Structure formats: structure tokens, C-alpha cells
Amino acid sequence: MTEIAAVAIIIAIGLTLVRALLGPTLYDRVLAVNSLGTKTVLFIGFLGFVLGRPDWLDIAVLYALINFVSTIAILKFFRYRSFQVPLHRRPVTKTPTEQGGDSV
Amino acid sequence: MIAGYSGADLAIALINVLLLGLLFVVGVAIARMRSLFAIVMLSGIYSLISATWFVALDAVDVAFTEAAVGAGISTALLLGAMLLTARTAKPEKGAMQIVPILVVLATGAMLVYATIDLPAFGDPDSPANTYVGTDYLERTPREIAVPNIVTAVLASYRGFDTLGETGVVFTAALAVILLLGFGERSLSATFNRKKDKK
């Protein structure tokens, strides 16, 4: 039964991949990458049970962390066109062109 | 080893085939696409799927490195590099379309030729299973008691080696950060200020 669930998750990964390939907008692709990462986490969890070693759940949790951080990085790139802008808002004391990548 | 497949073995074989098929589809799509952003996203997907495949092959440490470096850092680095160039690649013309597929086919043929000399999977007489490998396998449950032998070797038996590697990587990252900088004193911010003054 667990094997069937693992194969079903791979098929779901394939369906998400179709969305990443077809697009059409950039946000479709970002969402596809993020949900594909989530399905990877699920799949590794299932795979541990298929192979009889459930201690792989730790790895699945670490994958979830990496997935979250990389999605935040991509979305921050879209918002600011740069990684060098802090996520919190600073009080505006300078012209916006001096704040890193805003002028690009 | 070969005879007597159980249901779980068949499922694992099916999982391997499906994951490799997904990798093939992503690879062909990366080669065919022209939008650089989609290519960056697909390379992140490629890293995630291949990391999953490494987990299925029981190479957990390799899988974790692939997920952290391939899907995490290199996606961010490629996006940063995309800032400096155009959004779409120019299509190749004529003979330039043939050369890459020839290189790929030749490399693949050489790799397949190299696998002929490899010992069979799980062969007890292979070099990996005869010398110190058996020693680690025998001593790890008694001395360290972690379920993964590779983890025991990397983090305990060769702990000083791993500590030195971590120190080297940390020093390299620190040097790059000191040279390029972050935030307002970074190299790109300095360039932007100079551009604005002109």
C-alpha cells in the first residue's frame, strides 16, 4: 500500500512538472517548484517506509527547510531585483537609488 | 541477488525508472527552452528530483548536498547572474545544434563503457566490501550506534577531516563576503552609486 502511495506521489510530481514546463507566467513556475519541493518531502517520507527505514523523516524535514528558504529567495529576487535588500523596511532617509538594487 | 523479486523490489525498480524518466524530461526541456528564468527554475527542479533519486539509491549524504547546493544556493546564484544578462537566450543556428547532442552521446557511451568494468551491485568481493569497509560495518553499531554507516564514517571516524573541510569552506565563504561585501558597502551598490553620479 505504501509503495502505491509512493508511485502516486511520483505521478503527482510529473503533473507539477507539466505546469513548470508550460508556464505560462513566472509565478506559475515558482509555484510549481515550491509544490514540487513539497511533494519531494512527502515522497522521501514514504520512501523511508517503503524501504523499511523510517529514520529518513529527518532528511524530509531538512528538505522542507531548504525548499522554504529557496522560495523566499526567489520571491525576494522578484520584488527587489536584488538579494541585498533586507526583508524588513528601513526608515527612508536616502534617495531610493542608493538602496542597493532598486535602481536596476 | 537477481532471482526472486518481491513486491517491494518491483516498487523500488518502478520508482527508479519513474524518477529517471522525470529527470530525462526535465533535461530535454532545459535544452529546448529559451527563457532563462524558466531554465533556472527547471534546473532547481532537476536538482530536487535527482536528490530524491539519490535518496532512493541510499546515498543520503550526496542527496543532501545536492538539495542544498543544487536546489538552494545555485538557483539563487543563477538568478543573480541573470540580473547581469538578457532574459532569453538566442537560438543556435545550423551545425551548432548538432554538436552538443554528439558530445552528450559520446560522453554517455564512454560512461556506459566504464560501467562494464564495475563490480556487480552488492558484490562481496568488490574492493569497497573487502578492506576497511567490512571493519566499519562491523564496528559502527557497537562503537557509535548510528543507523547510517556513512554518517558514522564522516562525522566520527573521519571527524577531524570533516572539521577541517568545514573550516576551509567557511574561510572561503568569509573571504568572498569580505571582498564583495553585502548591503550598502557591497560592490554592486558601489557601482550603482557611481552610475548615478554620472
UniProtKB/TrEMBL annotation, chain A:
Swiss-Prot/TrEMBL keywords: Cell membrane, Membrane, Transmembrane, Transmembrane helix, Transport
Domain of life of the native organism: Bacteria
Transmembrane segments: 30-52, 59-78
InterPro entries listed in its UniProt record: MrpF/PhaF-like
GO molecular function: sodium:proton antiporter activity
GO cellular component terms, semicolon-separated: plasma membrane
Subcellular location: Cell membrane
Bilayer disposition of the protein: Multi-pass membrane protein
Pfam family, one: MrpF_PhaF
Keyword Secreted: no
Family: Belongs to the CPA3 antiporters (TC 2.A.63) subunit F family.
Name of protein: Cation:proton antiporter
Organism (species): Henriciella barbarensis
From TrEMBL, chain B:
GO cellular component: plasma membrane
Residues annotated as domain MrpA C-terminal/MbhE: 125-180
Alphabetized UniProt keyword annotations: Cell membrane, Membrane, Transmembrane, Transmembrane helix, Transport
Subcellular location: Cell membrane
Domain MrpA C-terminal/MbhD: 22-83
Entry-linked InterPro entries: CPA3_Na-H_Antiporter_A, MrpA_C/MbhD, MrpA_C/MbhE
Coiled-coil positions: none
Classification via NCBIfam families: PRK12504.1 (NF009159)
Protein name, per record: DUF4040 domain-containing protein
